[in-house]
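Please fill in the sequence for the structure shown.

STRUCTURE ENCODING:
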């Protein structure tokens, strides 16, 4: 069974890993439901992505909403159900990168509300989307759930504390989802990308130094690209790989092992 004609739900579809995965899956014949949060200045890029998906002969249903908002989540799913014509969602990608980048100690420290917001958007929202998809019977045998994590789940970086906590929680959520949805034939894995030059990564304090270090030590002598991750997700979504579930899968050219 190929991916052609199936549906993918991409949370964070307008840039970085979400954009690359949307385009890669469309090239393989998948229709894309894209959830993104963009202002007027970045909408031309969204329109370009939608155009490329349609050029590939696939449907593109994009929703400019806050993916962490419960009411808006339900509105998106209400709109999607009649349009996918009774099909299951074959691929779900959680690639939401919006959180507070502040230190725990010092003059301008992270607040309780900022920590809670970061965990809610970058980790807990995966659970809520998956719950709603399951309740609506949109997940079934062959469905694959992916969540983007990073080495921050295990390592510390200045001002990255709340995001690190979110990534650790995200990996835990993936394991729980994998266990509870295994009887339904749904697989769930976290994809741990190497350091990647994306719009969200550019907001991390000290990212230039981090990229420099990675270029020096990565066995492949380059940064990870969003397209590297997109091709991995597409490959893992093919039939026959449903037994691969509950993992944190590295996609980094060997970056984490040296």
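FILLED IN BY: designer on duty
SEQUENCE:
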């Amino acid at each position: 069974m190929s991916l052609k004609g199936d549906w993918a739900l991409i949370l964070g579809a307008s840039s970085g890993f979400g954009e690359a995965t949307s385009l890669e899956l469309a090239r393989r014949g998948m229709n894309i439901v894209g959830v993104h949060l963009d202002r007027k200045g970045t909408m031309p890029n969204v329109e370009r992505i939608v155009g490329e998906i349609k050029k590939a002969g696939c449907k593109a249903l994009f929703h400019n909403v806050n993916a962490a908002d419960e009411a808006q989540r339900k509105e998106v799913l209400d709109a999607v159900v009649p349009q996918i014509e009774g099909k299951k969602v074959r691929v779900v990608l959680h690639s939401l990168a919006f959180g507070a980048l502040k230190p725990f100690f010092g003059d301008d420290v992270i607040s309780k509300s900022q920590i809670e917001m970061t965990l809610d958007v970058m980790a807990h929202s995966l659970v809520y989307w998956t719950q709603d998809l399951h309740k609506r019977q949109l997940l079934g045998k062959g469905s694959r759930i992916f969540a983007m994590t990073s080495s921050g789940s295990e390592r510390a970086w200045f001002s990255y504390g709340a995001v690190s906590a979110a990534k650790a929680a995200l990996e835990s959520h993936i394991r729980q989802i994998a266990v509870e949805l295994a009887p339904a034939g749904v697989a769930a894995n976290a994809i741990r990308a190497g350091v990647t030059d994306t719009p969200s990564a550019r907001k991390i304090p000290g990212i230039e130094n981090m990229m420099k270090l990675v270029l020096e030590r990565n066995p492949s002598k380059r940064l990870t690209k969003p397209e590297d991750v997109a091709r991995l997700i597409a490959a893992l979504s093919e039939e026959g790989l449903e037994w691969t579930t509950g993992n944190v899968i590295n996609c980094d050219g060997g970056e984490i092992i040296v």
